[in-house]
Amino acid sequence: MTILYFIDTNIFLEVELKQKRVEESKEFLRKVLTGDIKAFTSDFNLDSVAIVMNAKKCRPQDIINFLLKIMSYEGLTIYSLNMLDRLVAAKYMRDYKLTFDDAVTYFVTKSLGINELVSFDSKDFKGLPGIKTLDPIDVLKR
Question: Rounded to an integer, what distance in angstroms lies between the CA atom of residue 69 and that of residue 139?
Fold first, then answer.
């Protein structure tokens, strides 16, 4: 049985912004790129990466390169949100006291029947029903 993961925004940002856990994140994403790991993310999460990259003064070409690379990930499926998804996510904000971006991530993860979220924000998702948060290194050790 293949385990499916949902990839949170911060995993991509770790690599794109060359933050402190870049190597762990790169290795995890390399396995998604080759299809060794199967994962989902959403168009909203990818837009969030581009918005943060822009705010951090990354060049437009850096954002283009990021988006082009995403298109080549063999193990990655991108979920496209609709307005109803966003409305339910907003309700999750209220019900679980989440930020909108965390509520979207939680909603999509639950909607897809995925119970393992790869994220460095385990505290933001702690105690939410039906979800376990893993660091990339946890997945790589499996």
Answer: 21
